[in-house]
Each structure stands twice: as C-alpha cells, then as structure tokens.
Amino acid sequence: MKLNVAIFSIWLSAGMPSWVMGQGVTEAASDTVPTRYEKMMTRRMEGWKRLIPDHYKIQFAGSIGVVSIGTGWTYGKKQQWETDIMLGFLPKFESEHNKAVFTLKQSYLPWRLRVKESAWVIQPLSCSLFLSSVLSDKFWTHEPDRYPKGYYGFSTRIRANLSLGQRVMYDVPDVSNWWIQDISLYYELGACDTDFCTFFGDRSIKFKEILSLAVGIKLHI
User: Fold this and answer.
1) What CATH number corresponds to the domain at position 157?
2) Least CB-packed of 19, 89, 156, 197 within 10 Å?
3) d(C-alpha 13, C-alpha 18), whole Å
4) 48 φ, ψ to 5°?
C-alpha cells in the first residue's frame, strides 16, 4: 500500500497540470524567474496601459465652448502634469449654425496642500496652456486670397490660450470601493493670443476685460 501511494504521488507531481495540483504548485511557479520574452511583453503591456485615459472633465465656459467635455492623462512623480483632449459646444448665437470647438490642453499643478489629516486637498495654483480650434469652414488657418497679404496676420481657426487657476480636491478613501480616486472642482482665468495683442495694443482696455472665467469638475479614475 505504501509503495502504491508513493508511485501515485510521483505520477501526480510529474504529469498533472498546474491548475489541478492546486495552490502549492501555483505558488512555486510564481517564484520562477520570468523569461526575456515575458519581461518584454510586460513592458509592452505597461506601455499600452499608459495610453488609456485616467480622468474625465466637464467644463463650463473658458473660451472653448459654453460647455465642453473631455478626457486625459494625469502623470508625474507627484501627479503634477495633465494632458487633456476636449470637445466643446458653441451655440450659434447670431451665426447660422452651432459649432464645435476642439481643444488640446496641457496643465501643470506644482503643489498639493492637504487640509490637516482630512481627505481634502487644495491645489493653490494651476497653469495651463492650450490650443483651441473651431471646427467650421467659416474659419481659416491660412489667410484667404480675398484679403491683401498680411491683412490679418493670424489664423481665425486656431487660438493659443493661457490660463491660471486653483482647485479643491476630495481624495476618495480606498475603503469606499468607488472606481473614482479623487474629485476636483476648479476655476481658471485665461485669455487667448488675440486678446493679449488687443490689450498691449490699446492701453484704454483694462486687463480684466480680456479675461474669461472657466469652472469645471475632474473625475480621476
């Protein structure tokens, strides 16, 4: 009987699949050194994972539409960098059609100040540089031939914008089992390139008159 048990044990350990052997074999397999191919595939999967957006935003006003929605990436050692892609809605007002505004935005948030031991965090400064474009054939990138050369000197389709703002963030506790890591409310004051040119070219215009206000919410997943 002892001999039969020994033979069965040897056969079981040598011939049975790892998923049949149970936890012991699984733990032993996990201790093996990964191969070069496995390391390469791990790096490749991590690279693809970085391309998946990790936050969503909704914003009101701010020179990129009355309301805009978008997604993007938060990164950096202290999560201080953000890249956003946003699409805004611009009502027709006195024009013929409603319009869409596409925006590519880069933001830098150097500081995070936690309120005592709470889940609230204040980000006292956000600096953003972004390019916006109205998606309409009524706007142009290169000056049409109907205008004298250099008449405008700038594109009516693409605007460069600069804004400064502040945020208040709620750091969602891990025990909540939410799929959201944190929620931020923010505001920004900004102006575009032509507004700055107007301000510096006409000293009768006050600086506050070229500023636009934006308010929004960010969900970091």
Assistant:
1) 2.40.160
2) 19
3) 9
4) -65, -35
Give the start-end residues of each E strand in 76-119: 81-90, 99-108, 113-114
Please check whether residues 191 and 99 belong to one and the same domain. yes
Rounded Cα gap, residues 183 and 179, in angstroms = 11
Matching residue, tokens 């202290």: 78
180 vs 164: CA distance, rounded Å: 25
- Give pTM, 2 decimals: 0.74
Residues 179, 129, single domain; the answer is yes
First to last CA, the chain: 59
Amino acid symbol at 77:
K
Helix (H/G/I), strand (E/B), else coil: 49: helix
134 in the same domain as 59 = yes
User: How many domains, the chain?
Assistant: 2
Answer yes or no: do 103 and 189 share one domain.
yes
Read off the DSSP letter of residue 107. E
* pLDDT tens digits for range 157-187: 788 999 999 999 999 887 666 788 999 999 9
Nearest to 120 by CA among 167, 175, 153: 167
Amino acid at 84: D
Residue that has been written with the tokens 């611009």 in this structure: 90
C-beta of residue 67 within 8 angstroms of C-beta of residue 214: no
Residues 103 and 204 in one domain: yes
